[in-house]
Design goal:
Residues 540-640 form the Glutamyl/glutaminyl-tRNA synthetase class Ib anti-codon binding domain. With 752 residues, this protein is of the alpha/beta class. Helices cover 34% and strands 18% of the residues. The protein contains 23 helices and 26 strands. The strands form seven sheets. Strands 12-24-25-26-22-23-13 form a seven-stranded mixed beta sheet, with helices on one face. Strands 17-14-20-19-18-21 form a six-stranded mixed beta sheet, with no helix packed on it. Strand 19 (618-627) and strand 20 (635-644) form a beta hairpin. The longest helix has 18 residues, at 25-42. The protein is globular, with a radius of gyration of 32 Å.
């Protein structure tokens, strides 16, 4: 086991990831074989991290293990060098299950051996620019450059996207020249009508209050109209909804849609919405869940009309159960729990026992005279999915969070839900599609007891790709150490999204954009992220931060030179305020903003090419490159001179910088799972735990940020210029701030 762990870490897996992989026998065996195959070609130390990542990705995604050796060899021989090629290779072996593999066809399909020369890229970009030249000259830098990139990439499928972008930038600059003042003016965005909770798009008709009987499947009895009339008199015709979570877990993005729909529908119709805890299972309920649920509802901007509990009604629910028995609609049963599972439950031999006998036995259940599982109260009805006689009450000798040891029998969801709705005079019981099978039992029970019956209306739940939201699976992720807790920013629980820096307005806007339909909705995370960017662009003040610092000494400034530089909080609207940062002889820039060897299309700092410093009014030029060792060593410092940007020739680029900065920790997140549907066995045959992205979190412990953020509070949000949107994490201390990347500045399919 220890040898295998060492083998896995040798290819770049973290120790935690390697241990987790070892728990999955099938994945562990496949990865071990793949590494062994690669090492037979390159030797024990010849498998670098890039190759290791491809081997891990291949082993976790390959369904037909007989192709393992073939693909491992292709990666080891560097025929397959990129994720793009690996995806094509996996698709090829999947569609060619029979031996032998046609090597020539495989190589062609996967781009093996294809070398895209700079000349080919230059020609392809030139051709695309020629095609759009007229429009480019007309719109200049307002033209959608992504169109040029897309067409050039289509022509050169296996080319490096970054190289294509550099070539596009260079040829556009050659055609149009440097940007003018007019080009730098921001194009006014057309005002988008922002979706709000009042705009929740309901694409199917919801029943009008008081006209419940017009709803499909609604049961009308001789008392229905009288009960509706009494309900309308009590409520004044007011719309009443409720959000009824179970307090046994943390809310997730799917709950955000339910919160928005229930509260939003009530608000749009001048109604009220209750927050009701469905606290009928004391074994799983904890105080932290009650608190967290209310916190998240209020964080999203909603205030419940009242906070209620199913347990508020335990006595009334019990009395109604006694009435149900008296009416001949329920009986005490002694079938065991195992017998009652599934849909083909054998008929109960106690179904027709005398009413008086069931009343006595139910009272004995209440008094604690039966063991757990020895008796249940069941309702005499058939549900829409064919399940017979669902359980109404079961015995649990567990103290309840609110009622203590007062009760040892607890009602089930099927019994409690509709009756609590009736007791609270709810008009619309809005719930997700999986509860459609319970609609008939909802209506049956209210009518069997002759109580007011609300309308149940089902809508499609919201699902996101690249994640799991099941409580059981999130607990598994926490227990195995894949994530830290329910609020780990890689999850899509609401506490995790808050910690990552998602504004509640963005989540509400996202729910409004998705709308409400009866069909299931599966959405890509980038649509949610787009809503986040829309909000943060207007609300997150700018700051400058350097994630991988490179020291710069400005030799023509005095050793004690110091000035204040004004930085606008929102460059597009400077009236919204500004802050100052120091500018001294020593500054720091991103390592990636300097290259010792000039490359075609590179616009930032090189020994031959000066660069501007954002907001500072200076242009710097390299005088000396200082390395750890001569020539081959790492660049650790640059000595530069500066001059005013007013007198210098306009540089090709302006970069961000920091001076006298604060050291901070920055956490960069990517998708937690590698596949769109990690719970789908056809996509991830070894289970969701085998699909964890080993690079889902990167911690940069020595990043630098300007001093303007010093007084920030937990969850304060900033745009770090040219880097992304960030939020202050609760792990921050007085000595060291910790920032989570919320989203990148532009959409990146690989980021969460």
């Amino acid at each position: 086991m220890a040898d295998t762990l060492t083998l896995f870490t040798s290819i770049g897996l973290s120790e935690q990831k390697a241990k987790e992989t070892l728990k999955n026998e099938a994945l562990s065996s496949a990865l071990k074989s793949a590494i062994t195959q690669a090492q037979s070609i390159h030797g024990a130390s010849g498998v670098d991290k890039a190759m290791g990542t491809l081997l891990y990705s291949m082993a976790s995604r390959l369904k037909d293990t007989k192709r393992l050796t073939f693909l491992s060899e292709s990666i080891a021989l560097r025929k397959i060098c990129t994720e793009l090629q690996l995806a094509a290779a996996l698709e090829f072996v999947k569609s060619h299950p029979h031996d032998p593999i046609n090597q020539k066809e495989f190589d062609k399909t996967c781009g093996v051996g294809i070398v895209i020369t700079p000349e080919q890229i230059e020609d392809a970009v030139e051709s695309v620019i020629k095609k759009h030249k007229e429009q480019l000259l007309k719109e200049r830098y307002r033209f959608n450059m992504g169109l040029l990139m897309g067409e050039a990439r289509s022509a050169l499928k296996w080319a490096d996207g970054k190289v294509i972008k550099n070539e596009v930038d260079m040829q556009v600059l050659h055609l149009l020249g440097p940007k003018t003042e007019a080009d730098l003016e921001k194009k006014p965005k057309p005002q988008k009508a922002k979706a709000t909770e009042n705009d929740m798009k309901v694409k199917e008709e919801v029943a009008v209050n008081g006209e419940n009987y017009k709803t499909e499947g609604y049961v009308v009895t001789s008392n229905t109209m009288d009960l509706l009339k009494k309900h309308l008199e009590l409520t004044g015709g007011q719309i009443r909804t409720r959000f009824p979570p179970e307090p046994n877990g943390i809310l997730h993005i799917g709950h955000a849609k339910a919160i928005n729909f229930n509260f939003g529908y009530a608000k749009a119709n001048n109604g009220i919405c209750f927050l009701r805890y469905d606290d009928t299972n004391p074994e799983k309920e904890e105080e932290k869940y009650f608190t967290a649920i209310k916190d998240m509802v209020e964080w999203l901007g909603y205030k419940p009309y009242a906070v209620t509990h199913a347990s508020d009604n335990f006595q009334e629910l019990y009395d109604l159960a006694v009435d149900l028995i008296r009416r001949g609609h329920a009986f005490v049963c002694h079938q065991k729990g195992e017998e009652l599972k599934g849909h083909n439950v054998p008929p109960s031999p106690w179904r027709d026992r005398p009413i008086e006998e069931s009343l006595v036995l139910f009272e004995r259940m209440k008094r604690g005279l039966f063991s757990e599982g020895e008796a249940t109260l069941r309702m005499k009805m058939v549900m829409e999915d064919g399940k017979m006689d669902p359980v109404a009450y079961r015995i649990k000798y567990t103290a309840h969070h609110r009622t203590g040891d007062e009760w040892c029998i607890y009602p089930t969801y099927d019994y409690t839900h509709c009756l609590c709705d009736s007791i609270e005079n709810i008009t619309h019981s809005l719930c997700t599609k999986e509860f459609q099978a319970r609609r008939s039992s909802y209506y049956w029970l209210c009518n069997a007891l002759d109580v007011y019956c609300p309308v149940q209306w089902e809508y499609g739940r919201l699902n996101l790709t690249y994640t799991v939201v099941s409580k059981r699976k999130i607990i598994k992720l926490v227990e195995t150490g894949v994530v830290r807790d329910w609020d780990d920013p890689r999850l899509f629980t609401l506490t995790a999204l808050r910690r990552r820096g998602f504004p509640p307005e963005a989540i509400n806007n996202f729910c409004a954009r998705v709308g409400v339909t009866v069909s299931q909705t599966t959405t890509e995370p980038h649509l949610l992220e787009s809503c986040v960017r829309d909000v943060l662009n207007d609300t997150a003040p700018r700051a400058m931060a350097v994630l991988e610092p490179l020291k710069i000494t400005i030799t023509n400034l005095a050793a004690n030179s110091k000035s204040d530089v004004r930085v606008p909080d929102f460059p597009a609207n400077e009236a919204k305020g500004s802050h100052t940062v120091p500018f001294t002889r020593t500054i720091f820039i991103e390592q990636s903003d300097f290259r010792e060897v000039m490359e075609k299309g590179y616009k930032r700092l090189t020994p031959e090419q000066p660069v501007g410093l954002r907001h500072a009014g200076y242009v710097i030029s390299v005088q000396k490159v200082i390395k750890v060792r001569l020539k081959m060593g790492k660049v650790v410092e640059l000595e530069v001179t500066c001059c005013s940007s007013e007198t210098a020739e306009k540089p090709k680029a302006f970069i961000h910088w920091v001076s006298q900065p604060l050291m901070c920790e920055v956490r960069l997140y990517e998708r937690l799972f590698m596949h769109k549907h990690p719970e789908d066995p056809s996509e991830v045959p070894n289970g969701f735990l085998s699909d964890i992205n080993p690079n889902s979190m990167q911690v940069i412990s020595s990043a630098l940020v300007d001093s303007s953020v010093k007084g920030a509070k937990v969850f304060d949000k900033f745009q770090f210029e040219r880097v992304g949107y960030f939020s202050l994490d609760p792990d921050s201390t007085a000595d060291k701030l910790v920032f989570n990347r919320t989203v990148t500045l532009k959409e990146d399919p690989g980021k969460i």
